[in-house]
Amino acid sequence: MVLRVQFGFVGTLVAGETLKFVASTPEQDEIELFGKRVEPGENIGGVRVLSMTTFAARYLLSGRDLDANRICTAILKGSSMEEARKFALQCLASTAVTAGRFDEAEAIILALVAASAQLQGEEKLTHVRNLFMLSRLYRARGFLVLADKVLAQLQGILDNELVPRVPQELLNPQRRRELHKAYSDKQLTIKDYLDGLGREREQLIAREDLLNSPEIERQIDVLHANEKAALNEMNDVTERIFANARVDAAIELYLLVLRTRWELSQSVGKDDQGFDLLQRLAQLLRQYNDKLLYPVEALAGFRYLVRQGQYEQARSYLALARMVAKADIGFPFDPPEPLPNVFNNPAAESLFGSVNRSGVAARSMGMLAHVYIEEGKLDEARRFINAAMAGAVFAFGKDSEQVAALRYDLARIDRRQGKNAECLAGLMSALSLVTAANEEAALLPGGRTVELMQSREGIPLELIDVLVEHPALLNKRQRDEILFAAFQSMRRPAVESAIAAASIRHDQIDPGKKALVDRYLAAGRNIVNIRAGYAKLSAGEGAGAGLSDARGKLTAELEAQQALLKQLSAELAASGDSDTTGLGKPQTLENVETGLLEGEMLIQFAFSAERGYVLGTMRGRQVLGVVQRGRASVRSDVEALLRELAPIGHEQQPEGRGFPLDRALGLYQEALSGILDELSDVKRLIFVADGVWEGLPFGVLVRKVPSPTLTVPDYDQVDWLFRKYEIAYLPSPATLVKLRIQRGSLARKDILGVGSPTGPVPMSPVRGAYVASLLPQPTVSEKSGSVAAGELEQIRTLVGPSRARILVGPQATKSFLRHAGIENFKVLIFATHGYLASEILEISEPALLMTAEAGANRPDYLTATDIASIRLDANLVLLNACNTAGSDGLPGSEALTGLASAFFFAGARSLIVSLWPVEDDTATSVGVETMRLAITKKNAGVAALLQGAMLHALLSGPGYMKHPAYWAPYVVVGDAVVVPLGDKVDRASASITR
């Protein structure tokens, strides 16, 4: 029998071979070998520790992370064997990633990466393994770009340093198998020879007639010499076996890196790159391992080639998917169809349980069903999906993503068979699982909690397709409601939940109730801090005699906080705040329509590989547009615009720098003109963040270009989108409802400005030198401090010294900020440097630079965690700094998290933030003009104010600053119509007259 890994281990029975399986669990075997369960604190000998690492690996593979943790903790406490301790740390990091304890996992992995960075030769493989763990962590956190950068560098190490060191003959899998067999046979021969020498020596020693005679001593010396030679030969053979094993490990890791990079390319819609990786993977699988692509990979290749019109090659990929999928369920010889049964793999059943109780079997059957769907064998596909359902329910739960995926597959079959009503019902059932609220998502700012279920794009997209093709299935209102729910399901809840948490806290006027909500939110923050403390201990900080006690105390404290959270949740529910623990819950179309004002349109996007949809929602109206290109193609044009928006100082302006107006016009025409051009009453656009558009301000799209030869100094003649519409952004539609039901600010003071920090300026990168090498590092202009101070002084002059307080230079510290009564101001302005978590060594989260406290020799920061712990009552937070709309860590993570999420969590109603590093002169112009307009246009909302400030920068700036890189980085996030200096939210705010 041959075992091949695919989403776990799936046995494939080979003709002529038999293998008897005796089912047992790791726990049963552990107790049988050691006489009991191993617990931390025991002294562990060398032989025993090797067995324990095997059990830890088995527990990991079977999903029993707590038991794997128990074993590995015992190894760390009781063994001095270096290799075993490294394995235990890797195991603990892996379980921490799975459990969502990302900070703890990162501390462990980065320590391993740093320790292995200088290894050379074959030992470099250890470093490569550690880097792969790091990429897995970043992938789990949603930092997809950084994960791919780690993998790309890892692939480079394998390509350039490890694989070239492998002798050519060992790259041939057949030759490796032959050598392995020859070496194993040689080992057995030498072992038999050594056993024979041992018996001969015992016989000589037993002969009393030759006792102490020179002859027996001579013969024993000969035996010793022969034994020594045989042992040397055995060591040589063993080393060759180990060398073979290292080659196998390097090749397997190489293939895994390619496979993971392919999966990432699928996640971010880079279809061309994904297919290139897939072809490379298929080639190397055949070349190095005599293996084939997994069915899911072959199917992806098939679909890509169909989209490219390469049908002949596509059929070969489909045939490969069918062959491997059948082999996985126990039919390696492609028997005639229909197959006699749905699962024919007794080996897999012995390892993983019967078909009805095995998630592995469910995946394998579901994959064959996918092949049948593509081949048009729909009845067979339905048969296998129905068979897979019981195992998926047992293994993953009836409300799991896996069950949702199977319901989705059944709906796809119904659609192809013309059963449109059944298809619609199935898709709505699957969607209800995908949109289930994530527990406690609102408690942790910046999206730090693990999403319990990743949204499947396929389900809502299929639902939209069905409603577009068969509108008569529902009346218009029902259709609008389901379309809205489908679009909404594709949004992630991190920022939305932070806003909802603040909304509930603001609405609690009763002191007792307010205190209850504060305790509830504080318990969530405490959980974060406890986990962070445990992560430091895991990384070795504070190691010593009290380390075990410290960990024990933290564990007990964590359990206590979790219990408190559960208790407070029940108390809040009993008091009538039943929505508190479901803060990320989607809103109905009716609720969102109620929150929208006249002249507002909420715009959402949904993209597949082939096409996209745009949904515009207004009060009492909803329109749907179609984009005739897929996500990768549209994203390519977006990235072309972003490249031209990269910040660059005016003294470095290259001759002829322009902006691709034709692409900006084309994107507008494709995505927005169909839902906007016929609606003259739309005045304000509220965009929901979408990955395809990430990083691009919609204001730079173009409605009309007066001349194709226009140069930058004449860009004030362009009909930019922001000139016609006020523009704001929301992380999700539900956010609108949460923000619009908030009361107005009760703050008694107007403006608090913080800026121009003094002291040491950070230039060192975060997360160790390795991660820093993958990312661009920030620079700080020498004139920035004086510019920021001048900006705040201008604003104070505008509003009057009695209405504004500024903290600049030595006063721009966290302690001054706390004592200033930050919760008593309606507008907060931070004119300082903003950093993503990827940029600063001392912290691992987004932050604003502050003046260091007296006597400190290191920079100080107002971090996202600091911000989330503050109670604000601010209508507007203006972050006149760099990168303040960036993600809560690294490139590739969810848009509009990080600092924005933290300020919403603290209680801000709207923010003005930057999408890229800002030229200081531009920052001053936009910040000062926004506040000047806030004073002179007292009823204007924040989106109208930013629109006016951007227009002022475009029209009045010098020629080179008419380029959108200078006036376009700022966006409004949150409630577009909140009046910054008002004591209420003006729901009838008018645009600024232009």
Write structural notes for this entry.
It is a single chain. This protein is of the alpha/beta class and 994 residues long. It has 36 helices and 18 strands. The strands form five sheets. Strands 11-10-12-16-17-18 form a six-stranded mixed beta sheet, sandwiched between helices. Strands 5-4-3-6-9 form a five-stranded mixed beta sheet. β4 (612-618) and β5 (621-627) form a beta hairpin. α16 (401-416) packs parallel to α18. It is globular. The N and C termini lie far apart (78 Å).
Structural class: alpha/beta
**Low-pLDDT regions:** 1-23, 437-455, 494-500, 534-545, 577-584, 763-768, 777-786, 887-896, 986-994
Q: Total number of helical segments?
A: 36
Within the largest sheet, what's the order of strands? 11-10-12-16-17-18
How much of the sequence lies in strands comes to: 5-15%
Compute the gyration radius: what is it?
Answer: 32 Å
Shape: globular
Fold topology:
Elements: E1 2-5, E2 9-12, H1 26-34, H2 46-61, H3 65-78, H4 82-99, H5 102-116, H6 124-141, H7 144-162, H8 173-206, H9 214-267, H10 271-289, H11 295-307, H12 311-328, H13 346-352, H14 359-375, H15 378-396, H16 401-416, H17 420-434, H18 458-469, H19 476-489, H20 494-507, H21 511-538, H22 547-574, H23 589-595, E3 600-607, E4 612-618, E5 621-627, H24 631-644, H25 661-671, H26 673-676, E6 684-688, E7 702-704, E8 719-720, H27 721-724, E9 726-730, H28 733-740, E10 749-757, H29 768-772, H30 784-799, E11 804-809, H31 814-819, E12 825-831, E13 834-835, E14 847-850, E15 860-863, H32 864-868, E16 876-879, H33 899-906, E17 910-914, H34 920-936, H35 942-956, H36 964-967, E18 970-974
Parallel strand pairs: 3-6, 6-9, 10-11, 10-12, 12-16, 16-17
Antiparallel strand pairs: 1-2, 3-4, 4-5, 7-8, 13-14, 14-15, 17-18
Helix pairs in contact: 1-2, 2-3, 2-4, 3-4, 4-5, 4-6, 5-6, 5-21, 6-7, 6-9, 7-9, 8-9, 9-10, 10-11, 11-12, 12-14, 14-15, 14-16, 15-16, 16-17, 16-18, 17-18, 18-19, 20-21, 20-28, 20-33, 21-22, 23-28, 30-34, 34-35
